[in-house]
Amino acid sequence: MAALAHTPSRAPSPTGLAGPEPRQGTMGLRERKKLKTRRAIRRAAYRLIALQGYETTTVEQIAEAAEVSPSTVFRYFPAKEDIVLTDDYDPALESALRARPAGEDPLDSVRRVLTHRLALALHEERDAVVQRTRLMAEVPALRARMTESFSGAFETLAVTLADRAGRPHDDLDVRVFTATVLAAVREVLLHWAARGHEGDPVALVDRALRALKGGPRI
């Protein structure tokens, strides 16, 4: 993996994985309204799920609690699972990764960017991160959808790393490297949630990605 060579990068995330949404001061009126609606839907969903469980919470109930129509919910989130899992932060991940030093080892670049984004998410919306990862660990439908939802982060990472390495976007080495990194992050988040969110997930992700370079320490 470390063999991916860098060429000078062109000048952005998780990834998104779970970073804070864009600040409203940097957005136009239409975008601010959309962001407000997305947040209202998410908060309503988390509130209802905490009270009555994931399976028994319907999109209609979420829409009513968020004071929007069910069609509006589906316009923002194609499926109920997406309310929990949808990642809005790929552009921030991309820009952060492209901004890393051109000669930096790709695994180090990805590790620094992902741990930074996760730390920021925990600082700004820890409760949401905890609830999201708990549901991912407990609800089979969400785990299945999580694998699908990682496809966007996968393409963002793979294309960005390929560009930085001067390789085609379909380069097999780059895509295997990207898939391995995301699989490691997914496993860490599920591990953290399954153990009652004990410990520091940022440190766990950092440790897992370091292990990819040299193998597990025994």
UniProtKB/TrEMBL annotation:
Domain HTH tetR-type: start-end pairs: 35-95
Pfam families cross-referenced by the UniProt entry: TetR_C_14 (PF17754), TetR_N (PF00440)
DNA-binding region boundaries: 58-77
Assigned keywords, A-Z: DNA-binding, Transcription, Transcription regulation
Name used for this protein in its record: TetR family transcriptional regulator
One Gene Ontology term of the molecular function aspect: transcription cis-regulatory region binding
Any coiled-coil regions, as ranges: none
Annotated region (Disordered), positions in chain: 1-34
Database matches in InterPro entries: Homeodomain-like_sf, HTH-type_TetR-like_transc_reg, HTH_TetR, MftR_C
Organism expressing this protein natively: Streptomyces jumonjinensis
Presence of keyword DNA-binding: yes
Tagged with keyword Transcription: yes
